[in-house]
Amino acid sequence: MDRPEELEFIQLMLIGISLTFLLSLAVVIFFLYYQRRLFAQQQTMEQMRIAEQRNRLEAEIEARESERSRIALDLHDEVGALLSTVKLYMSYPATAESHTEKEESIRIKAQEMLDDAVHKLRSISRNLSPENLKLFGLISALNEQCIMLEESGAMAIYFNHNLKQRLGLEVETHVYRIIQELLNNTIKHAKATEIRLQLTHTSSRLTIDYSDNGIGFDPQLKATAQSLGLTSLTSRVQILSGEIEINSEPGQGVHIKITIPNTQTQNSAQYE
Fold it and tell me: Which CATH number characterizes residue 241's domain?
C-alpha cells in the first residue's frame, strides 16, 4: 500500500472513530437528559400528589373544626340554656308542707346530678371549641386541660415547656388537637397513672415529647393504630409537614416524639 493511501486510510479511520465517539457521546447525553427530565417530571408529580393530599386533609380537618364549633355553640346556647333554666326552677326552696323528707332527698340528688350535667356540658363544649385556645393561646389551653385531668384524681400529669410567645392560631389549633388526641388515648386505653408532656421550641422547630406509664401497644399493628385514633393524629402532623416517632410495646408504656418544622412565634403575643 502506497503511503498516500495509508494516510488516507488512517484519516478515514480517525474520522470513523471520531464519528462513533461523537455519536456515542450524543446518545449518552440524550439518555442523561431524558433521565433528568423524567426524574424532574416524577418529582413534580410527587409534589403535586403530596400537595393534593395535604389540601384534602386540610379541607377535611377544617370542616371537622367548623362542625365542632357549630356543635359547641349549639350545646352552649340551646342545651346549656335549657339546663340552666331547669336548675333555676329546682333551686327554689321547698316548704315542709309541699315536700316529704324522701321527696326532698330526691330533689337534692336531682340538683346534684343537674349540677354535674351542667359541668360536663361546659367541659364538652370547651373540648369541642376551646375559647381559651383562641383568646390566650396553646399553653393556657393545655394548662386548663392538665388541671382538669389532675382534678379527676385518675392520674398525675407533668407538663413543661419553653414557649415564650404564641405560635400562629392554625399551628396552635393543630398542636392542641394532637395533644388532646394523645391524652384521650391514654385515658381510654392505657390504664396509666402518669403522663409526661414536654414542648420544646427552637428557631427552626417545635418538638412534642409525650409519654405515659400505661400498658403500651404494638405500633406496627395497623388495626391497633386505627383503634387508637393515630390515623387522625398522623394526618394533622402531615399537614404541618412534621414527623412522628412512636416507641411502645405491650407492658412498657408509650413514648411519642413529634417534630414540627418552621413554627415561627408571634412577637406581639407573649406568654407570661
Answer: 3.30.565.10
